[in-house]
Structure formats: C-alpha cells, structure tokens
Amino acid sequence: ARRARRLLERPLAAGEREDLALVEAAAGTGKTALIAGRLTMLLVRGTPPRNIAAVTFTELAASALSARVH
Fold first, then answer.
1. Is the dihedral of CA 45, 26, 15, 13 positive or negative?
2. Is residue 28 left, alpha or beta, with left meaning phi > 0 and alpha meaning psi from -120 to 50?
3. CA–CA distance, 1 with 7 (Å, rounded to integer)
4. Helix 31-44 crosses helix 59-69 at what angle (to 10 degrees)?
C-alpha cells in the first residue's frame, strides 16, 4: 500500500501517459517491479482488472509479475 501511494503521488516522466507504458530495459534493472507497481496503482485507483493488459515475453516474467500483484 505504501509503495502504491508513492506511485500515485509521483509526477509522470516525460513522454509517459497515465494509461499506457512501454518498458524496455536490460536484465536486472527492475522492469518487473516497475510494472507490478503500475498495475497496483491502476487497481488502487479503481481501474477494473478486465481493463488492464500486461504483456511479458516469458512465462517466468509473467509468473513473477502475477506473484507481485496478487
């Protein structure tokens, strides 16, 4: 909850939209944590889960993401 609150309070980065994000970065840079935080933020703000799509390129990343959001 504290992390979601920090995400809600932070300003958007240049070129970032509140409703859309593309994350590209090297291994070990925190992509999964960033995406999990954004998903949590959307859910805390009341976005219905059926309106959220998160795509990963591996089953391992999808499992890690699911575990962090649930």
1. positive
2. left
3. 10
4. 40
Q: Could you count the other beta carbons within 10 Å of the beta carbon of residue 43?
A: 14
Are 44 and 9 contacting, i.e. CB atoms less than 8 angstroms apart? no
Please state, in angstroms and rounded to a whole number, the distance separating the CA atoms of residues 69 and 37: 8
Q: How many whole angstroms separate alpha carbon 41 and alpha carbon 3?
A: 9
CA angle (26 as vertex; 58, 22 as ends), nearest 5: 70
pLDDT in tens, 21-45: 777 778 888 888 888 888 888 888 8
Q: What is the pTM of this model?
A: 0.64
